[in-house]
Predict the 3D structure of the following.
Amino acid sequence: MDRLDELSVLVAIVETGSLKAAGQRLRLSAPTVTRALSALEERVGARLIQRTTRRLSATDAGRELAERAKWMLAEYEGCMDGASTGPISGPLRVTAPLAFGRRHVTPLVTEFLALHPKVQIDLLLNDRNVDLIGENIQLAVRIGELADSSLIARRVGEVRRVLVATPDYLSRHGAPQAPADLARHDIILSTAATSTAEWRFENAGRTQVVRLTPRLRINEMESILLAVRSGQGIARALSYQVADELASGTLVRLLSDFEPAAFPVQLVVPGGRRMGRAVRTLLDHMAHRLGQLDVIRPDPVFLERHF
């Protein structure tokens, strides 16, 4: 077994927490996995995995080496693929959040297919964070911090949670000047992610939680936007979802000085695997094109006010 294969074994062990599961992922026997780990530990001169009768856990040295190995393996595959001169080909599975995927990812996927006729893509749009390995996903678009440290991510932008209302609504009810003013306004609340009727705000490093009495609760974002566009009240949306309306003036951004920290927009691939040429080409294509979108670039007005 070569040294790159030993690193692949370490990454698989750290991610699965099991020698047996690592072997199944890599299609190696349990003795082969054990020998590879022992050889790597001897080469490094440190214990990488703590073994007990009940479980395995990575040492600090093991976690650090596994994290560096994920990038090294991906870069190695990219270098090897770069030597190929033939057209890329093969099936790919990609996932993205529903609204963001519909507006921004689908056009990039169809553009990519036009550039690479031998590629087939299965695009899954939903707001569930799917198991990339379990569902054989090669590339995902994620909005927000990643809970799974085994994933490899490339940040391409950010979005903010913004409060919006129509000019007509504000002419009738006035604009809130502070989060506490929302108590006297008609609130349209999303119940898609949580049933808690509250919004969090930040200002000068302090977090403020405002309890709400919504006039309308909806579990789907497009319906929330329909309600707010018709002047029914104030809603909270991600900035890219209302970028066109804010630019045209049909919606007004409220309490921008109190907005929570931005969410990163990231392209994510499973760790512990050598990245194929088609995946890397799609990743680079989407990173470049998404990085050009104004709707996920850092907000210059917010940065000017807060930094």
The chain has three domains: 3-82, 90-156+263-295, 161-258. The domain at 161-258 is CATH 3.40.190.290 (D-Maltodextrin-Binding Protein; domain 2). The first strand starts at residue 49 and ends at 51. The first helix runs from residue 3 to 16.
